[in-house]
Amino acid sequence: MNLRGFGEWWRELDEVTDLGPIVRRYFVIGAFDGALTVLGIVIGASATIGSHPNAGAFVVAVSISAAVALAISSMVGAYEAERVEKKLHRHSIERAMLTELSAEHRVAFRTAALISAVVHGVAPVIAAIVPVVPFLLTDFRTATIAATGLTLAFLFGLGTYLGSLVRERIVITGLRFVATGLGTAAILWALGALGLSTIP
Questions:
Q1: 134-172: b (≥16 Cβ within 10 Å) or e
Q2: Residue boundaries of the structural domains of the chain
Q3: pTM of the shown model
Q4: pLDDT at 146
């Protein structure tokens, strides 16, 4: 299938299943989850084991594990949820039309559920890779600062993208996402410091 053929196929699938907004929503949710999860790991590790010589390797290993777990959880959850929703939607259309939909329509609904699931599974992995890269290239302290900055920049980009869709002030929307990241970082740093002081 060439690019033009793929575009036509996608448009037809979107017309039947309203796939575009669903995929966009799942990508944003998955990416946001992945970014905040790994940011939490980075900040938590910095607050608790930052002085350990293998702290960077720990962050990489745990972040990758968390990203894989998020991907599987997101993919399976999204597929099952979308499969049921698409089936309910199909039944609703069939009741309204007093006839069964064609086999092509049924395939389109199944395909839409599968694509939604894949996007929701891939998104957190993409978001998780961004803050992990510095730990492969530099020392833990520098990597922590770089990872935090990259994650906040990623969140800002995600927010501005959403803002542009609804013609909001994109900077404000981006900053709301950044504020969420900073708030999460502050809470996790406090929890990490509290854990160090209370757990023997």
A1: bbeeeebeebbebbbebbbebbbebbbbbbeeeeeebee
A2: 10-151
A3: 0.79
A4: 92
